[in-house]
Structure formats: structure tokens, C-alpha cells
Design brief:
- With 99 residues, this protein is of the alpha+beta class.
- It has one domain: DNA Methylphosphotriester Repair Domain.
- The protein is built from three helices and six strands, in the order ββββαβαβα.
- Strands 5-3-4-6 form a four-stranded mixed β-sheet. Strands 1-2 form a two-stranded antiparallel sheet.
- The chain is globular.
- This is Ada DNA repair metal-binding domain-containing protein.
- One of its GO terms (molecular function) is DNA binding.
- InterPro entries: Ada-like_dom_sf (IPR035451), Ada_DNA_repair_Zn-bd (IPR004026).
- Pfam families: Ada_Zn_binding.
């Protein structure tokens, strides 16, 4: 009895899409992952490897409020501020801005 042929493996990334937050605060699908992560309740954005975000995720929080941005300009346009932990210099510049 012949062995059934297995289907050719598909490139896993070819069909993957990512949900990102746009400048207008609407979600959209993208073929490329976001470069920055954000936290919706406090409107903070930061690096994907931010130690503060990783600690919060490890403790079981944060994940359901997590959003992703294509770039920094989009995060700022959506009304988010830099993270004080992983983007310290940008945070200090943001904090010094007049209200």
C-alpha cells in the first residue's frame, strides 16, 4: 500500500498578519509586525523588549491592553507617550514639553 503524500510545507510567515494600532486609533491588519508595543490605559509606547513591560506580562497583567505600532510616528500621532523605562531620553523630552 503506498504511503500518502504529505502536503508541501507552507511558509508560516506568508499567511500571518499582525493587528496594529494606527494614528487614528483604529486597528488594522499588516503583513509586517509592529516595531513598538503600547499599553492602552496609560497611552504609553516602548520597545518590544522593554523590561518594565516584560515584568508586567510575566506577572499576568498588561497583555489584554497591549497594542502594537508600525513606528514611533504612528504611536505619537495616536496620542501615546514614550515609556520612562526603555525610552528614558525620549520620555524626559516629552515630559519637558509645555502642556
Amino acid at each position: 500500500m503506498p504511503t500518502p503524500k504529505k502536503p508541501a510545507p507552507q511558509d508560516a510567515d506568508s499567511a500571518k498578519t499582525y493587528t496594529l494600532l494606527g494614528a487614528d486609533r483604529s486597528f488594522y491588519q499588516s503583513d509586517t509586525p509592529g516595531t513598538l508595543g503600547g499599553y492602552r490605559p496609560r497611552k504609553i509606547y516602548g520597545r518590544l523588549d522593554c523590561p518594565s513591560a516584560i515584568r508586567a506580562i510575566t506577572r499576568g497583567g498588561y497583555v489584554r491592553h497591549r497594542v502594537f505600532f508600525a513606528d514611533e510616528a504612528t504611536a505619537i500621532a495616536a496620542g501615546y507617550r514614550p515609556c520612562a523605562a526603555c525610552l528614558r531620553e525620549k520620555y524626559l523630552l516629552w515630559k519637558a514639553l509645555p502642556l
